[in-house]
Every structure is written in structure tokens, then in C-alpha cells.
Amino acid sequence: LDPNTAYYYRAWSYDTDSGYYSDGYSEDFETTQANMGPPTDFTITEIGVDTVSITWTKDPSATETLIRAKLGGYPIDTTDGEEVYNDVGTSTTDSGLALENTTYYYRAWSWKVGGYSDNYVEGNIGGENMIILAVSIVVLGLTVAGFVKKNGPLMLTSSLGWVLFAFLMYNQSFANAFMNTGLLMFGGAMAIVCAFLSYTTWASGRRRPSLEDEQNAYRKQILKITRRGR
Hints:
This protein is of the alpha+beta class. It contains five helices and ten strands, in the order ββββββββββααααα. Strands 5, 6, 8, 9 and 10 form a five-stranded antiparallel sheet that branches. Strands 3-4-7 form a three-stranded antiparallel sheet, with no helix packed on it. The chain has a two-stranded antiparallel ribbon with strand order 1-2. The termini are far apart.
């Protein structure tokens, strides 16, 4: 039968002796249920160093919700990965996680008598420290290179990079990861140092001349004096 469709029925009596149906009949109708969709408003939020909160809205035609989690990628079906939740509610928590360095992948299906929904919702969380480490290495490398070479534009670039980095730290997940690893104070200190170095090398427009530059300037000065003497 088609989902969400009304079907009407009538029934007549039949007399085997006469071979006739009754003039009267009884009737009724039933409407089939709509197709069951997956949960909606599926949200995963970090609420501790090793715990996440998961909330969702249950499909109106569903009885329960199944949530499964997996490392390295999303569960491929309702038996893959680890079961996180399988009940009638609309929220749960998942704890004992290594959120700083590991990404956890979640999928959720609706369930009622007869089976699971064909579609699902999904989301992931964790692993921010891997991004933080990569960004830290790149920005710190630019900072060191700019300071060693006294390269004004490069110093400015690294300083702007740290300003952006500081902004990202105030994203909840990034901030939690930074505070959990002690990198928050390091990032803030480096941003201040980079800004100061950028000001002294680029904004001031001053750069200590190299020995070759000093020698060339000296030769030019001698040449000017020689020409005047003629």
C-alpha cells in the first residue's frame, strides 16, 4: 500500500445456497502511515574534555531513535560501529572520548515496528588539536622566518595569522582544546610578540642595513667626495 493514503473497504455477505450477495453491506476506511523519516535537528556539542551532548527531534511516525558512532568514518548501516543510544528519548550523552586528538562520527536512524528509516542524519566532533598543531607549526614558522630575516611584510603576515588564530581560539571547540593542552596562553603570548616585532620591523619602516649595504653606501659617499674635489 502507498504511504499516507486512505483506503476504503466494503463487505457483502454471500449465500452459497442461492448464489446471491446480500443487498446490505458494511464499510470502513483506514489511512496508512506516512513514510518514516530520519531524526531532525541533530546536534552534537562538546560539554567536557571527554563528553558530548547529542540532541535531536524524533520523526513523528517513529517509535525510537538509534544512534551509532565510529572512528575513521561514519557507520555504514544500523549494525556498524558502536551503539550510543537506542530508545524513545530525544537527547543523550556520550563520554569517555579523546576529543582533543580523535574525530568521532555519528549517524542516527528512526525506528518503528517494521524496521529502520531508509535515510539517516549524521555529524562529527573532535580532533581539533590536529588542526591546531598544523596551524601552529605554519604560523610559528612564518614568525621565526620573519624575525630572522627582518622581513617586514613576512612579519606582518605572521602577525595577522596569529590574530586570526586568536579569533579561532574563541570558537568553543578550539578554545576547549587550547585550554586542555595549555596552548591558549602560548597562542596569546605569541600573538603579542608577533605584533610587536611586526611594528618594529615593518610599521616603522626601519631595517638594519647589512654589511654589504654599508659598504656600498660608503663607496658612494667616497665617490661623491672625489667628484667634488675635481
